[in-house]
C-alpha cells in the first residue's frame, strides 16, 4: 500500500519577507536611485506584510479588501499626480517596480491600482483639460475617488479600435451615451469611469468621464471568474446616459489618443507579469528547500535545480527587458512595438513560470495555501488583457518588416 506524504505548512521562505527580491539575479534594483529604492522597499514591505497574507482569502471569496485603499492613501503613492502638489513624477523605472511589487503579492491588487492610476488617471492627465485635471486628479491621487476605464465591449476586444459600438450623440451642451462595455475593472464601486464612445456625427472615438450614480449608467458585477477574482469586473450598460460637455475629455479626439494611454499601460502589464514570474520562482525556490522526499530536500535533485534555473532565467529575462523599456520611456523614445514586445514576451515567460511552480509543488500546487494556484489562474487574465500575445506580435512584426499583417 502506498503512503501519502504529509502536507507541509505553507512555505515561509524569502518570497514572503519584506526588503528582499531573491529573483533579481542581476541586481536590477540597483538601477533605482537611493530615494526610489527606499520608496520601493516601503511598497514591498506593505505588499508582502499586508496584501499577501490576505490575498488568498479575498480571492476565494471574490471580494475586494476595501481597507487596502486606506493604506494606499497613507503611502501617498500618487501624490505627484495632484496638479496642486507640483511634485516631480517618479521615473518609469520606479513606477514599474511599484506595479511589479504589488503583483508579486497579488495580481488583483496590482490590477486595481493599474486601472485606477494608469488607465483612469492617465486618461485624465494626458487627455483632459487643465480644468478637468484640477477637478478630478487631486481626489483620485488621494484615493478619495476611484477610477475605472471602459473601452472593451461584449463584441469588441482586439478589434475595438474599428469596431467600437458604444455611441455618443450631442444634444446642446450634453452628450447622450448608448451601448455596453464588458470586463471593466473597479466599475462596481468606481466614482469615475472613463468611457470611450463613437461620435455619431464624426465617427471619431471620444472619451467621457461618467460619474457615479449618473442616470442611465448601470454596472453589474461579472460572476464565476476563475482569474483575478478579487478584481471587481463589471458589465456596463449605457442607456441614454447623459453626460455634460464639461465631462468630455477635451484632448481625446480619436482612437489615436486612446492608443497613447494603452501604449503606456501595456508596458505596465509587462511589469505586472514580471511580478508573477518572480513570485512563482520564489515560491518554488522556498518550497524546494523545505520539501523533503527520499530523506533530503527536493532542491538537491538535479531535475529540480534545472527547473529552478529555467524559472530564474525567465524572471531575469522579463525584469531586464522591463528595465530597458522603462529607460526608453524615460528618454521619450519608446514606441508601440517596444511596449508590445515587452507585454508579449513577459506574459509568455510568466505563463511558463506559474505552471512550473505548480508542477514543482505537486499536489500542494493546486491549493490556495501556497499561492501557486492563484498565480497560475491569475496569469491567464494577464496573458490576455491589454492586447493578446497575437495582437502584440503583429504590432512588433509590422515594425520589424515594414509590412502589416493586420486584417482590415
Automatic annotation (TrEMBL):
All copies of domain Acyl-CoA dehydrogenase/oxidase N-terminal, residue ranges: 35-142
Residues covered by the Acyl-CoA oxidase/dehydrogenase middle domain: 148-241
Keywords (A to Z) from UniProt: FAD, Flavoprotein, Oxidoreductase
Gene3D superfamilies on file: Acyl-CoA dehydrogenase/oxidase, N-terminal domain, Butyryl-CoA Dehydrogenase, subunit A, domain 2, Butyryl-CoA Dehydrogenase, subunit A, domain 3
Keyword presence, Transcription: no
Keyword Glycoprotein: no
Homology family: Belongs to the acyl-CoA dehydrogenase family.
Protein name, UniProt field: Acyl-CoA dehydrogenase family protein
Amino acid at each position: 500500500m502506498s503512503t501519502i506524504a504529509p502536507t507541509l505548512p505553507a512555505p515561509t521562505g524569502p518570497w514572503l519577507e519584506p526588503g528582499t527580491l531573491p529573483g533579481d539575479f542581476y541586481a536590477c534594483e540597483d538601477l533605482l536611485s537611493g530615494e526610489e529604492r527606499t520608496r520601493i522597499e516601503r511598497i514591498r514591505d506593505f505588499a508582502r506584510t499586508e496584501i499577501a497574507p490576505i490575498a488568498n482569502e479575498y480571492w476565494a471569496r471574490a471580494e475586494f479588501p476595501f481597507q487596502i485603499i486606506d493604506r494606499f492613501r497613507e503611502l501617498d503613492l500618487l501624490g505627484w499626480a495632484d496638479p496642486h502638489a507640483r511634485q516631480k513624477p517618479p521615473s518609469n523605472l520606479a513606477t514599474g517596480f511599484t506595479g511589479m511589487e504589488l503583483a508579486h503579492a497579488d495580481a488583483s491588487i496590482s490590477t486595481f491600482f493599474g486601472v485606477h492610476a494608469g488607465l483612469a488617471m492617465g486618461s485624465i492627465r494626458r487627455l483632459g483639460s487643465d480644468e478637468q485635471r484640477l477637478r478630478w486628479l487631486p481626489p483620485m491621487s488621494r484615493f478619495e475617488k476611484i477610477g475605472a476605464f471602459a473601452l472593451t465591449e461584449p463584441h469588441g476586444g482586439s478589434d475595438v479600435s474599428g469596431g467600437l459600438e458604444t455611441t455618443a450623440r450631442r444634444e446642446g451642451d450634453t452628450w447622450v451615451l448608448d451601448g455596453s462595455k464588458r470586463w471593466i475593472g473597479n466599475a462596481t464601486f468606481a466614482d469615475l469611469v472613463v468611457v470611450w464612445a463613437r461620435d455619431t456625427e464624426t465617427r471619431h472615438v471620444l472619451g467621457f468621464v461618467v460619474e457615479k450614480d449618473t442616470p442611465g449608467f448601470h454596472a453589474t458585477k461579472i460572476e464565476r471568474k476563475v482569474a483575478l477574482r478579487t478584481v471587481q469586473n463589471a458589465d456596463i450598460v449605457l442607456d441614454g446616459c447623459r453626460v455634460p460637455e464639461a465631462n468630455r475629455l477635451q484632448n481625446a479626439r480619436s482612437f489615436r489618443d486612446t492608443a497613447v494611454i494603452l501604449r503606456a499601460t501595456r508596458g505596465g502589464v509587462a511589469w505586472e507579469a514580471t511580478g508573477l514570474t518572480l513570485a512563482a520562482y520564489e515560491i518554488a525556490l522556498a518550497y524546494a528547500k523545505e520539501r523533503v522526499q527520499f530523506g533530503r530536500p527536493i532542491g538537491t535533485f538535479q531535475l529540480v535545480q534545472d527547473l529552478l534555473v529555467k524559472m530564474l532565467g525567465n524572471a531575469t529575462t522579463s525584469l531586464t527587458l522591463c528595465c530597458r523599456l522603462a529607460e526608453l520611456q524615460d528618454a521619450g523614445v519608446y514606441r508601440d512595438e517596444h511596449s508590445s514586445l515587452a507585454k508579449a514576451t513577459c506574459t509568455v515567460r510568466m505563463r511558463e513560470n506559474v505552471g512550473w511552480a505548480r508542477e514543482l509543488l505537486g499536489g500542494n500546487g493546486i491549493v490556495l495555501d501556497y499561492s501557486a494556484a492563484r498565480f497560475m489562474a491569475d496569469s491567464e487574465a494577464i496573458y490576455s488583457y491589454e492586447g493578446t500575445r497575437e495582437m502584440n506580435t503583429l504590432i512588433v512584426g509590422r515594425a520589424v518588416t515594414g509590412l502589416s499583417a493586420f486584417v482590415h
